[in-house]
Design a protein that fits this description.
The protein has 138 residues and is α+β, with helices and mostly antiparallel strands. It is 25% helix and 35% strand. It is globular and about 35 Å long.
Length: 138
Amino acid sequence: MKRKAFHELTTIELYRLLALRTEIFVVEQNCPYQEIDGKDEQAIHYWIEEDGEIVSALRVLTEASPVAIGRVVTKAAHRGKGYSRTLMDAAIKDFDHETLYLQAQTYVEPFYASFGFKRTSEINNEDGIPHVDMLRES
């Protein structure tokens, strides 16, 4: 697992992170939206590679209040290997003293609940996909 602030990323790492997120969130989920949202520069990026390819990633927005975990993603061929759990464990450990926020697609709400996140909103539709807000108190 790797962890870097934006200014530490190489151009190749940044390209691969953005390509993975676009592959899943825009293409696979058929959800055209502005994936590059201007928040990556304030984020800590976590990822897992296999054979030099980034296969799972997330980011933590440290300047958000509360600190926000987002863009949790794993390539389809690599799902079920525990990569998202590994990344979530690392991010939570790094920010354990903080209240953490995330916005979850409803089908993965139980996954986030397993880390102590609790739903704090009704289901809302974001880009055609049902989501809920969740918090994990410090």
